[in-house]
Amino acid sequence: MAKTCQVLGTHVSFGNSVSHSHRKTRRRFQPNLQRKRYWVPSLNRFIALQVSAKGIKTIDKRGIESIVAQLRARGELSI
């Protein structure tokens, strides 16, 4: 599975590591992804999502039902 948040779409970004002498080498910025299970009452089952820490806060704020509807509309969740 790609390193992408299923809720927000956060993905790996790239930049430079800059040393004291200002030599630059390429590096990757990884999102803080967690595999989390949520109980969805309308489906009467658990679903497992790969979400970033900010995605978890978004789910807490908007509710899992809203997020599931959004994922179904995008075609990421086929239940």
Kindly describe this structure.
Belongs to the bacterial ribosomal protein bL28 family. One of its GO terms (molecular function) is structural constituent of ribosome. The protein has two helices and four strands, in the order ββββαα. The protein has helices spanning 53-62, 64-74, and strands at residues 13-18, 24-29, 33-40, 45-52. The strands form two sheets. It has a two-stranded antiparallel sheet. A two-stranded antiparallel ribbon has the order 3-4. The mean pLDDT is 95.
Strand content is 35-45%
- Strands of the biggest beta sheet: in what spatial order? 1-2
Low-confidence parts lasting 5 or more residues at pLDDT below 50?
A: none
- Structural class determined from secondary elements: alpha+beta
* Main sheet: strands, sense, barrel: 2 strands, antiparallel
Please bin the fraction of helical residues.
25-40%
Keywords:
79 residues, alpha+beta, two-stranded antiparallel sheet, 2 helices, Large ribosomal subunit protein bL28, Ribosomal_bL28, Ribosomal_bL28_sf, ribonucleoprotein
